[in-house]
Design brief:
The model is unreliable at 66-76 (pLDDT under 50). A three-stranded antiparallel β-sheet has the order 1-3-2. It has helices spanning 3-16, 26-35, 42-54, and strands at residues 24-25, 58-63, 78-84. The protein has a single domain, classed as Winged helix-like DNA-binding domain superfamily/Winged helix DNA-binding domain (Arc Repressor Mutant, subunit A). It contains three helices and three strands, in the order αβααββ. The two termini are 22 Å apart. With 90 residues, it is of the alpha+beta class. 41% of the residues lie in helices and 17% in strands.
Length: 90
């Protein structure tokens, strides 16, 4: 992954944060990037968010896709940002 793509992901997080709901879903970030013409796979986005979480820059909750109930519509794997460090968006 390029540093430019990583920076675009961070910029999109900062443009959306803080949210009225107090969290930000990776799907929203993915959609914003796509609307800007930025090509990013779910895997790259989740990997980048995980790296930011590991380094203490964001608080992240991972959401596995699928589910065990056959009556449920499978949901795409994703992540939810619960909090970000103040200096991430400086």
């Amino acid at each position: 992954m390029s540093d430019d793509l990583r920076q675009k992901i961070i910029e999109n997080i900062c443009e959306e944060w803080p949210t009225p709901d107090g969290y930000l879903e990776s799907a929203a970030i993915h959609e914003r990037l796509r609307s800007q013409g930025v090509e990013v796979t779910d895997t790259v986005l989740i990997t980048t968010l995980s790296e930011l979480a590991t380094s203490g820059r964001i608080t992240l909750t991972l959401v596995p896709g699928g589910g065990n109930n056959p009556d449920q519509v499978p949901v795409q794997s994703g992540a939810t940002i619960q909090d970000i460090e103040d200096d991430l968006c400086e």
